[in-house]
């Protein structure tokens, strides 16, 4: 069976809650995947929750100067301008990923995903394995 290239993003619970509430509509990353169109994405919540919690669309990626990306995505990223400046310090380019169509799933606990799909949470993001997608019932 062939699966689409589904992404997995590790997101801290504070920011995941903002995404689930519809307030955070941009994910900021220093090194994003190359997304020209919305791409199916799983959201894995990091410590202390350790669980797969949502499926959504990430993309496209908006890449530009730090000042331009702040104008476009600052409010929808849910961080302060000071946090933004600190996060992108030392870089010329900032990247904001559009988030849409968020749907809660599971939750699927990390131990279950390890036992049944050999899942290892990514440090930032990665592509989902066929085994993980099958375990979650995601097509």
UniProtKB/TrEMBL annotation:
Q: Kindly give the InterPro entries that the UniProt entry links to this protein.
A: PUA-like_sf (IPR015947)
Q: Which Gene3D superfamilies match?
A: Hypothetical protein (2.30.130.30)
Name of the protein:
ASCH domain-containing protein
The taxonomy runs:
Bacteria, Pseudomonadati, Pseudomonadota, Alphaproteobacteria, Hyphomicrobiales
């Amino acid at each position: 069976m062939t699966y689409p290239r589904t992404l997995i993003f590790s997101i801290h619970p504070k920011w995941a809650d903002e995404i689930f509430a519809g307030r955070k509509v941009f994910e900021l990353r220093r090194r994003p995947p190359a997304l020209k169109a919305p791409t199916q994405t799983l959201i894995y919540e990091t410590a202390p929750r350790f669980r797969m919690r949502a499926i959504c669309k990430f993309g496209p990626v908006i890449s530009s100067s730090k000042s331009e990306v702040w104008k476009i995505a600052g409010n929808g990223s849910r961080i302060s301008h000071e946090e933004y400046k600190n996060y992108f310090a030392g870089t010329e380019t900032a990247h904001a990923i559009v988030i849409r169509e968020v749907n809660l799933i599971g939750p699927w606990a990390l131990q279950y995903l390890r036992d049944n799909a050999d899942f290892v949470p990514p440090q930032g993001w990665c592509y989902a394995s066929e085994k993980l997608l099958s375990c979650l019932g995601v097509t």
